[in-house]
Fold:
Amino acid sequence: MDLQNLYRQVIIDHYKNPRNKGLKGYKQVHLRNPSCGDDITIEANIENNVLKEIHHEGSGCSICCSSASIMSELLKGKDIATAKKIIDSYYHLIKGEPVEDEDILEEALVYQGVSQFPARTKCALISWKALEQLIGEDESE
Ligand code: ZN
Structure:
């Protein structure tokens, strides 16, 4: 199986069987991507600078929904500093820029091909932007 095929299968798996889906009432950020129809809410339970839980809810394309699932799995349990580092690396990946420490992206590496499709980059970024916003609001409190 080639790598692109493997990446596609990981995306389809998270799209069909989303992890951490369903909101529980923690602090939320709702974002929309009108160009594609993605509509997603991310919530996080942040305690002592750790992302204890991350949930998502919404509808959208396979890139958007699968990336919310992968992001929630990858960043759950991480402290804020580590999460920020991973988010930053992910942004580089999606923009097609060199990523220093690819390993920390784990499953999120499946989106490395997205940079070749500028119309889809927003789909891959929306849930990550929502979480980044949540972290920022938590820090300003
Ligand atoms: Zn989309």
Q: What stands out?
A: The first strand starts at residue 27 and ends at 33. The longest helix spans residues 118-139. The mean pLDDT is 95. The radius of gyration is 14 Å.
